[in-house]
């Protein structure tokens, strides 16, 4: 498809509230071709980043080595890089260019506890026993996002395109953690659109509500100890409060909408039976298909906790832990991404890669389907009941979503098997596809005021119907201790496996 920048563009740009001086009649396809060449030329550099991040295997909020490498690479590539914004040392924001339109790539690079695994083998073989590792492949996000941003920069430079391409690596996605803080800090205030990037087993986009809203809080009850046999009447049992809260919520379940989810774990349940416990703690996740409904259920949960404290004569402290809005995929942006998916296509898998995937699926007890050979059609993918803190971003700025085909279908994330492939050839080829589709889609957003206007109009309608509110308590500060002890336990042993890579894009 040859799209030229039309004369009405300036008018639309004015309506969007910024100048759109790009008037050159360079066909969009030529711009994209240039970006594809940059990706092909730098494929090894991209892979070097992603592979290096795999062996860092850093948990959320502790992504120090990973963001150091990303900062070094992006600075050398001509980006202005900020590390440590919004009060989080591993929060990375990079930009190239100036002014509007401003388009951002949003993603993360954190690993998971217990995910250490020797890549390439499907026998359970941790690199470091019990250590963390990339069993969701977030390491690939680092290479693909940086590569696409660089390719866009090359095109901007060559053709004097106005605007800004930005890159956001938010800490601790696996703990649903940082994005409400990034939104509160105002990172997306002057951003016109984002594309959220995530590894998948296919190249795909989507629109509408993609997953669930979630609220996570710790409820701590404080009572009074006493001897369980000698003077139990002097005690106030904090674990009784935990139990009563649990029963109370079970009584509520019948009266909740069928879309809700709620699950808990008891994090302090006493020491031994003959000591009346003065501390009881229960950690809850409440979810629903949208945030107002999740919040309604959460408020009932708080009432139940207050009731449990009243019944037991204990006191109650509620500590916010995390929250996430469901991801809202913008349809106009999804349609633009889908066109690029169809242009780029799926990777050409070798016979060897297909055999590997099928053998792996067989060993893992999954349907033996091999790797996908066609892109996923744009359509109503069912809303997932899991959550992602990037959801908050999608309610303050129009958001496209892109998944790229770097893992084996059927091998589920969050188990060690998913750490077998992130540095192999299947992952590498999928990353090339991902970077091309991402760069082309960012270029569409940068050069088409009509697309931005359509995305904005749709976004305004959706968020008018359901306005965003933050669940962050006003005085909440990011928990920088998150995962620190766990990470430091393994870092020295993991260091032996680090790759000495200094990728330089050209
Ligand atoms: Zn993820």
Structural description of this entry:
- With 506 residues, the protein is α/β, with parallel strands linked by helices.
- The chain has 13 helices and twelve strands.
- The protein has helices at residues 9-16, 28-41, 43-56, 64-76, 139-159, 179-184, 238-253, 291-312, 331-344, 351-363, 425-447, 449-465, 484-495; strands at 80-83, 92-98, 102-107, 163-169, 193-200, 208-209, 213-222, 261-268, 279-288, 315-324, 328-329, 399-405.
- A six-stranded mixed beta sheet has the order 1-2-4-3-5-12. The protein has a four-stranded antiparallel beta sheet with strand order 8-9-7-10, covered by helices on one side. Strands 6-11 form a two-stranded antiparallel sheet.
- Helix 5 links the parallel strand 3 and strand 4.
- Helix 2 (28-41) packs across helix 5 (139-159), helix 2 packs antiparallel against helix 11 and helix 5 (139-159) runs parallel beside helix 11 (425-447).
- The chain is globular.
- The two termini are 28 Å apart.
- The model is unreliable at 1-9 (pLDDT under 50).
- The structure holds zinc ion.
């Amino acid at each position: 498809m040859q799209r030229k920048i039309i004369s009405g563009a300036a008018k639309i740009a004015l309506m969007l509230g910024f100048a759109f001086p790009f008037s050159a009649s360079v066909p969009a396809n030529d711009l994209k071709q240039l970006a594809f060449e940059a990706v092909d030329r730098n494929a090894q550099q991209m892979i070097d980043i992603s592979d290096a991040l795999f062996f860092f295997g850093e948990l959320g909020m502790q992504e120090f080595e990973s963001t150091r490498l990303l900062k070094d690479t992006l600075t050398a590539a001509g980006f202005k890089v900020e590390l440590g914004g919004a009060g989080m040392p591993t929060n990375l924001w990079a930009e190239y260019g100036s002014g509007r339109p401003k388009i951002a790539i949003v993603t993360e690079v954190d690993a998971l506890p217990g995910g250490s695994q020797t890549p390439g083998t499907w026998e359970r073989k941790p690199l470091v026993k019990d250590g963390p590792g990339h069993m969701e492949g977030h390491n690939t996000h680092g290479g693909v996002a940086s590569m696409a941003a660089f390719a866009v920069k090359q095109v901007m430079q060559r053709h004097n395109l106005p605007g800004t391409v930005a890159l956001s690596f938010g800490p601790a996605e696996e703990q649903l953690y940082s994005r409400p803080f990034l939104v509160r800090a105002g990172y997306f205030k002057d951003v016109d659109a984002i594309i959220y990037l995530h590894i998948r087993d296919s190249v795909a986009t989507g629109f509408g509500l993609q997953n669930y809203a979630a609220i996570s809080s710790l409820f701590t009850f404080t009572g009074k100890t006493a001897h369980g046999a000698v003077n139990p009447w002097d005690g106030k049992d904090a674990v009784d409060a935990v139990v009563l809260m649990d029963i109370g919520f079970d009584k509520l379940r019948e009266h909740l909408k069928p879309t809700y989810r709620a699950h808990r774990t008891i994090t302090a349940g006493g020491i031994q039976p003959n000591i009346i416990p003065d501390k009881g703690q229960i950690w809850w996740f409440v979810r629903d298909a949208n945030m107002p409904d999740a919040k309604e259920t959460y408020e009932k949960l708080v009432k139940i906790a207050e009731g449990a404290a009243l019944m037991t004569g204990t006191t109650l402290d509620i500590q916010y832990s995390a929250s996430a809005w469901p991801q809202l995929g913008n349809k106009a942006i999804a349609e633009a991404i889908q066109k690029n998916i169809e242009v780029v296509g799926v990777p050409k898998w070798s016979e060897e890669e297909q055999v590997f995937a099928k053998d792996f699926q067989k060993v893992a007890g999954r349907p033996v389907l091999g790797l996908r050979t066609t892109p996923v059609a744009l359509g109503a993918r069912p809303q997932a009941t899991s959550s992602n803190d990037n959801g908050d971003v999608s309610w303050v700025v129009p958001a496209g979503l892109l998944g790229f085909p770097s893992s084996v279908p059927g091998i589920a994330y969050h188990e060690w098997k998913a750490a077998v492939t992130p540095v192999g050839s299947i992952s590498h080829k999928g990353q090339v596809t991902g970077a091309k589709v991402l760069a082309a889609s960012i270029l569409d957003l940068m050069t088409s005021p009509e697309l931005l206007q359509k995305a904005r109009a749709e976004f305004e309608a959706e968020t008018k119907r359901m306005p965003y509110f933050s669940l962050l308590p006003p005085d909440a500060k990011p928990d920088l201790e998150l995962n620190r002890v766990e990470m430091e336990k393994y870092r020295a042993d993991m260091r032996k496996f680090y790759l000495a890579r200094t990728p330089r894009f050209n």
